[in-house]
């Protein structure tokens, strides 16, 4: 049975693979034991979420409820976590670079496309478990995942542009 999550290619108009991440709606959010909780843009009531922990550039952990089907970039922005995303998910930069702390979680997601790999090659501090946050969807298999935001990024898209959440 396929247990890999789909990579989001929304910029190209591809719809996330709902089947790969589909599940029943939960009645409550997953609770976590992090040092920081954010609820600035709460998921809709009844919306299924997973727990995602972002480790920021200062090493501070932010554990949030990530709605299934949203990209890790969108979730970061909705929770005011400082992940750049200069091209807003159009695969034209590498500023949404995230590093999966646990290789087991990394293996659960679909491999990066060639275009994502090309952008990743430009990323600062590339690792074997690097991905672009705008290309990875929250899905059940990633519940409990921890991702690190590198201490720096390279922005070839629009220098210094930091999109604001909508
Ligand atoms: S936001 Fe530019 S590639 Fe992800």
UniProtKB/TrEMBL annotation:
Residue ranges of the 2Fe-2S ferredoxin-type domain? 50-153
Similarity field: Belongs to the adrenodoxin/putidaredoxin family.
Give the matching InterPro entries: 2Fe-2S_ferredoxin-like_sf, 2Fe-2S_ferredoxin-type, Adrenodoxin-like, Adrenodoxin_Fe-S_BS, Beta-grasp_dom_sf
Protein name according to UniProt: 2Fe-2S ferredoxin
Tell me the PROSITE patterns matching this sequence: 2FE2S_FER_2, ADX
Tell me the cofactors it needs. Answer: [2Fe-2S] cluster
Q: Name one GO cellular component term.
A: mitochondrion
Query: Which keywords does the record carry?
Result: 2Fe-2S, Electron transport, Iron, Iron-sulfur, Metal-binding, Transport
Q: Name one GO biological process term.
A: P450-containing electron transport chain
- A molecular-function term among this protein's GO annotations: 2 iron, 2 sulfur cluster binding
Q: Which CDD domains match?
A: fer2 (cd00207)
